[in-house]
Amino acid sequence: MTTIRSVPLDDPAANSLWAAQQTELFVRYGEPDADEDFALHMPPDALVTSLLAVAEGDEPAGTALLRWSPFDTGAGSVEVKRLYVSPGHRGRGIARELMTEIETAALRAGAVRIVLETGTAQPEALGLYDSLGYVRITPYGDYKEDERSVCFAKELPTRVLVVNGTIGAGKTKVAGAVFDLLAERGMRCAMIDGDYLSQASPDAPGDAFNQGLMFENLAAVAPVYRANGYGCMVIARVVEDAADRARYTLAFSSAGGHADLTIARVTAPEVERLSRITVRDHEPEWQAWGHARTVELEDSLDALGLDDVTVSNSGRLPSETAAELVEKLGW
């Protein structure tokens, strides 16, 4: 059984395997790797993850590293480096396991694509990447002029988190806190308040709360965020139509496929929601509307049951609710 661990760049076992890989590449290509010492000069914020595969008996078996691409491979690109399995452990699927972990790490980082470079003298690697759905792209990097260089890419789906909740539950503040938390962790992400994309007067005929207008706007801006390398979107918006799940998924579809959508609901007791609405909306007319709407909408959301995860936003800061939500999501 193989265990895959995250390790620092100076991990002795990983570095020993990297050295073995360089020796093998020298034999295959007859020259040293031009980027052999890249890890020594890599800025701290360039590293996404460094992995070590360990076989039974705690024996180092393979490595893989993921960094933000320093090359012209498009905003939000991450690059695989040092994918290597020692000869005695080949044929056991370890390289595939490492690549699975690499793709998971790329998604968690908010990347939009994975790129990598290999060569014609590594037929095993070529077959692996072909089988994993990577497509060949124009060579880039240190060997882009070398006819032996073969480069691959794989587009990743955009991850979308919709923070749902009735009026006064605090969905917008929690969504903002989620965005802040993810950004602090180095994820490439962006936030949209769906209410702002639906504010128009007069309302579109037959379009309750201008929901259709919002989805048109989302579909228009989604490619812009994607082109700028943001692989994770956080959206604050009530979800009270079962059809909206498919609409979000399609709005953020891309070369990486349909979006990976999660709907998270924040809740708070009715008395707390009513108090928040009273403090927020000073006009009596809007207070009365908000008080009635929060009860009606809460019942509707309960009946629909569209949420993938639910967290309480009662009696604590939005940042605390956001931290629990991110932990539940495994992000």
Describe the protein's topology.
Elements: E1 3-6, H1 12-29, H2 38-41, E2 47-55, E3 59-68, E4 77-85, H3 94-108, E5 113-119, H4 123-131, E6 135-137, E7 149-155, E8 159-164, H5 171-184, E9 189-193, H6 211-227, E10 232-236, H7 244-251, E11 260-267, H8 270-280, H9 284-304, E12 309-312, H10 318-329
Parallel strand pairs: 4-5, 8-10, 8-11, 9-10, 11-12
Antiparallel strand pairs: 1-2, 2-3, 3-4, 5-7, 6-7
**CATH third-tier fold name of the largest domain:** Rossmann fold
> Tell me, what is the CATH class of the largest domain?
Alpha Beta
- Name the strands of the widest sheet in spatial order: 1-2-3-4-5-7-6
Helix content: 25-40%
The residue-averaged pLDDT reads 96
Shape: elongated
Q: Give the oligomer, counting copies of the same chain as homo and different chains as hetero.
A: single chain
Q: Count of DSSP E strands? A: 12
* Gyration radius, in Å: 24 Å
Distance between the termini: 26 Å
> How many structural domains in the coordinates?
2
Largest β-sheet summary: 7 strands, mixed
Structural class: alpha/beta
What is the H-and-E element order?
EHHEEEHEHEEEHEHEHEHHEH
Low-confidence stretches: none
Please state the second-level CATH architecture of the largest domain: 3-Layer(aba) Sandwich
> CATH superfamily of the largest domain, please?
P-loop containing nucleotide triphosphate hydrolases
